[in-house]
């Protein structure tokens, strides 16, 4: 009994010590969305449960090793024990109850993170190797950064143009895959940002060579700043096709694979390409003219430049109008 009380006391002390160190505040990034709150509560409970279980096992083990060690001159065997039904039933039922309880709690929290706000504004999030594009259908904006008004639910409609990607902002906690396959494969994610600030979207699904660099900015701003951003975006569409092409270059993710400064990336650089002769992987040579560029944007697999692989998504330009494609060609022509 004396030993049980001593070990029990040590278990409590170690649990408290660990529990105060292992908190969401210490282990997780800032909490910046409404959906993050119930998730962090669950995490917090789990960290306490982990602290307790770790203490229970390790304290009893170390206590027994030290207090009941073999003393000098002891030569006899220890006490033999054969099973203990009450103990075995207890240590089966308590974990079972805990796991079932956590399953219910988890399901409830999952429901809470998907709670619908009817005033939520829709944003189409289109992933492709290796960039993100954000379309605001209500405002008519296409952007390579995501801007969200604070304290207002955003309904993200996630899709992919090639392989499976995954939308993840650690500060918002929630995560959802972006799947290829069109309309019926679109997945929803609801985020209500609660803290003004800048965060990074990460791709959380291995998607090829530049997976780790598939990042995008998300800015949470006040409603007034959001309105100003919308205004600015709507005015940003220039009269100059080259300027528009420069914008589409980042908005449609061309910049993930094609440099404009001559450096070598996944795809050929755009600098100086127009008007040059390109060597193809079948040994032939073609002049880089408008027809060639148009074909390469609309049907990327048609002609592959020597030394490069056919990795450009075949439908990358599906979301682009003919005018936008023409703008991009004008931009490429300007890069001499
Ligand atoms: Cu996209 Cu990993």
Number of E-type strands: 12
Return the string of H and E elements: HHHHEEEEEEEEEEHHEEHH
The spatial strand order of the largest sheet comes to 3-2-1-5-8
Described by strand count, sense and barrel closure, the largest sheet is: 5 strands, mixed
Rg from C-alpha positions? Answer: 29 Å
Small molecules held by this entry:
dinuclear copper ion
Name the shape in a single word: elongated
Count of alpha/pi helices: 8
Q: How helical, in percent, are the residues?
A: 25-40%
Unreliable runs: none
Beta-strand residue percentage: 15-25%
Give the mean pLDDT. Answer: 89
List keywords for this structure.
336 residues; 5-stranded mixed beta sheet; elongated; binds dinuclear copper ion
What does this structure look like?
This protein has helices at about 1-20, 25, 35-65, 85-115, 225-235, 240-250, 290-300, 320-335; strands spanning about 120-130, 130-135, 140-145, 145-150, 155-160, 165-170, 175-180, 185-190, 195-205, 215-220, 275-280, 285. The protein is an alpha+beta fold and about 325 residues long. The strands form 3 sheets. The protein has a 5-stranded mixed sheet. α3 runs antiparallel to α4 (about 85-115). It is elongated and about 95 Å long. The model has no long low-confidence stretch (mean pLDDT about 90). Bound molecules: dinuclear copper ion.
């Amino acid at each position: 009994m004396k030993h049980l009380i001593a070990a029990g006391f040590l278990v409590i002390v170690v649990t408290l010590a660990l529990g105060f160190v292992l908190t969401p505040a210490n282990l997780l990034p800032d909490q910046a969305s409404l959906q993050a709150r119930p998730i962090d509560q669950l995490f917090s409970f789990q960290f306490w449960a982990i602290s307790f279980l770790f203490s229970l096992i390790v304290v009893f083990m170390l206590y027994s090793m030290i207090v009941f060690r073999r003393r000098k001159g002891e030569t006899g065997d220890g006490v033999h024990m054969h099973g203990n039904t009450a103990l075995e039933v207890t240590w089966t039922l308590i974990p079972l109850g805990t796991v079932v309880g956590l399953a219910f709690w988890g399901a409830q929290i999952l429901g809470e993170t998907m709670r619908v706000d009817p005033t939520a504004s829709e944003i189409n999030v289109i992933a492709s190797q290796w960039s993100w594009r954000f379309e605001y259908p209500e405002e008519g904006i296409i952007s390579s950064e995501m801007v969200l008004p604070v304290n207002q639910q955003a309904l993200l409609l996630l899709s992919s143009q090639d392989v499976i990607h995954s939308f993840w902002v650690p500060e918002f906690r929630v995560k959802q895959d972006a799947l290829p396959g069109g309309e019926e494969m679109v997945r929803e994610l609801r985020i209500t940002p609660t803290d003004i600030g800048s965060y990074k979207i990460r791709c959380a699904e291995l998607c090829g060579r530049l997976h780790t660099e598939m990042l995008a900015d998300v800015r949470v701003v006040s409603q007034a700043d959001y309105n100003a951003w919308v205004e600015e975006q709507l005015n940003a569409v220039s009269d100059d096709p080259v300027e528009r092409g420069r914008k589409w270059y980042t908005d449609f993710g061309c910049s993930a694979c094609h440099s404009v400064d001559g450096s070598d990336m996944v795809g050929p650089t755009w600098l100086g390409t127009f008007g040059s002769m390109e060597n193809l992987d079948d040994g032939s040579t073609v002049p880089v003219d408008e027809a060639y560029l148009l074909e390469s944007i609309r049907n990327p697999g048609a002609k592959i430049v020597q030394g490069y692989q056919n990795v450009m998504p075949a439908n990358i330009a599906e979301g682009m109008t003919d005018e936008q494609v023409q703008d991009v060609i004008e931009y490429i022509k300007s890069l001499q």
